[in-house]
Amino acid sequence: MKQKANVFALVTLLCLLPMFVSAQTDAFGIPDTLYADLSKIDDYNWKVDISYTNDEWVEALSIPLRLIGGKTRLKGDSAVFTGGRVEKFDYKGFRADTAIQCVTMGLVANLGPNKNSLPPGKGRLVTLFVSSPDKKPITEFTVDTTFTRPNNTLMVIAKRIQPGEPPDTLGLDRKAEKQIIPVWVVRKPE
């Protein structure tokens, strides 16, 4: 009986291990959160508002998404950054891959001599528009994070020097701590 209990405890621990290994990380404070608010435009089109809550200055974001529509094929039509918190970012990349029903968005605050950064706060980053290339009604729809080639995963890069009193600074030897894996929340329409 004791051996069964030990085996059960070991199996339970091994099952829970991936949850702790891939948990959200944030060296600066509370875990950041990315929200996907889904809303139906009509039977063939949906919109996804991607919002972000952060408590540190951010330099870049990588947001690869898988579009899930049951048996209906989906494609990412476009992304609108106007009016969002990243509107002034130097690079706002959007790549739709219809073959694997994924969208990759890459956002970089500063590519040159300006001082762009995403300040702490909350609000909409981008609005993604999704449709059916086969002109079939989209009856069920959701999005989830994914991995897209060459090496895109859901990630946020924090600014190395965070303003404040005293400034919160990560040394160059601790650059991995700038990588934040945010919490992912999908909010479906009522």
Task: Tell me about this structure.
The model is unreliable at 13-23 (pLDDT under 50). This protein has one helix at 2-21; strands at 33-42, 45-54, 58-68, 75-80, 91-97, 102-108, 121-131, 142-145, 155-158, 161-162, 168-169, 179-180, 183-187. The protein is globular, with a radius of gyration of 19 Å. Strands 3, 5, 6, 8, 9 and 12 form a six-stranded antiparallel sheet that branches. It has one domain: Sandwich (Immunoglobulin-like), CATH 2.60.40.680. It is mainly beta and 190 residues long. It starts with a helix and ends with a strand. The longest helix is centred in the N-terminal third of the chain and has 20 residues, at 2-21. Strand 5 (91-97) and strand 6 form a beta hairpin. The protein contains one helix and 13 strands; from the N terminus they run αβββββββββββββ.
Task: Note the main attributes of this structure.
6-stranded antiparallel β-sheet, 5-stranded mixed β-sheet, 1 helix, mainly beta, Immunoglobulin-like, 43% strand, 190 residues
Task: Report a brief summary of the structure.
The chain has 190 residues and is mainly beta. The chain has one helix at 2-21, and strands at 33-42, 45-54, 58-68, 75-80, 91-97, 102-108, 121-131, 142-145, 155-158, 161-162, 168-169, 179-180, 183-187.
